[in-house]
Amino acid sequence: MIVFSLLAHENEDGVMDQLKNMRRFVKDYFIVVLYNGSTDPNFGKRVIEEYEEVLVCPYSRPIKYRKTGRVFYDVARWLASERIKYDYLVYLESDTMFLGEGFRKFLDKHLEGYDYAAKLWKKFNPKTHKTSSPAENSMIKEWGLWQKYFKTDYVCKTSNPFQTYKYRTVQKILKIADHKRLELFFEKSNVECLGEMLFPTLARKCGAKVRLYPRWFRKYLRWSPELQTSDIDTALEKGKYMLAHPVKSDVVRKYIISKQDNEVAEGVGL
Fold it and tell me: Mutual orientation of helices 195-205 and 134-141 as an angle, nearest 10°?
């Protein structure tokens, strides 16, 4: 089973579209743990009523922009508390979509002999690292705090969307996480995009082996600019791309949905 951790805080119609998209392209058994990052406790209610494979993480709390560091951690520890077993835990956000089938099959092959997959990965020493990245700079400024937690001379960093961990690796991370101290660090810290560094660094401490997604696979996974309908047309024409990010506009999201509806009507790929 694949578990998708999905962070969303607005536009429930967009989340509904994401689930429709996932039902079409993720053929294997999966569940989605929705992390409600909004101030509305009822956000996601329609999604749950419509899609039985969706659960809401009870540890959800309002999340500020670029301060999503605890989301993946909260989802992982809740899954552990409920003794929910899975093969892969995948990080999604509200601007991610699927473009093709075969994600599970791809992961099985790509992660053979590895522990997690990511779009990018780097390891750096915050005491000597020079960067223009706001996230990395914020970690460098707080390294005196975070070094006490990680007890390393390095930080590892990836990008959030579609970072994927095997079940056994998540359990190792949770085992060494020191939960009480981490909660205190979450309260004190102002590090941006902490979620892109927390799990990768702890995974490294556990001896986990990372494998990057292939260059062709991550072609339509980028930080900016956001994807347009022309990008979607090009990707679908090639027929080999599975994932898309960032899909921020309702127009582009609806365009992807209309394309997959047409495929279903025509019997393509069924």
Answer: 60
What average pLDDT does the segment 109-137 reach?
Answer: 96
Indicate the pairing of strand 122-124 with strand 164-166.
unpaired
- Token pair recorded at residue 241: 């791309």
For 139, 206, 260, the CA distances from 143, given in Å and listed in that order, are: 6, 20, 46
One-letter identity of residue 138: S
* pLDDT at 270 exceeding the cut of 50: no
For residue range 77-98, what is the model confidence (pLDDT) as tens digits?
A: 999 999 999 999 999 999 999 9
Separation of CA 175 from chain center: 21
Closest CA to 165 of 118, 219, 101, 207: 118
* C-alpha count within 13 angstroms, C-beta hemisphere, residue 223: 9
User: Which pair of structure tokens corresponds to residue 242?
Assistant: 């599975």
C-alpha torsion sign, points 158, 162, 166, 167: positive
Beta bridge partners of 190: none
Q: Which two tokens stand for residue 37?
A: 């990052």
**Mean predicted lDDT score pLDDT of the chain:** 94
Q: Is the CB of residue 120 less than 8 Å from the CB of residue 159?
A: yes
Alpha-carbon distance 60 to 206, whole Å?
26
The pair of three-digit structure tokens given for residue 219, joined into one six-digit string = 């072609």
Q: What percentage of residues in the chain have a pLDDT greater than 70?
A: 97
Dihedral of the CA atoms 77, 58, 191, 175 (nearest 10)? -10
Phi-psi region for residue 133, left (φ > 0), alpha (ψ -120 to 50) or beta?
beta
Query: How far, in Å, CA of 220 to CA of 68, rounded?
Result: 22
Residue 90 in tokens: 């995948």
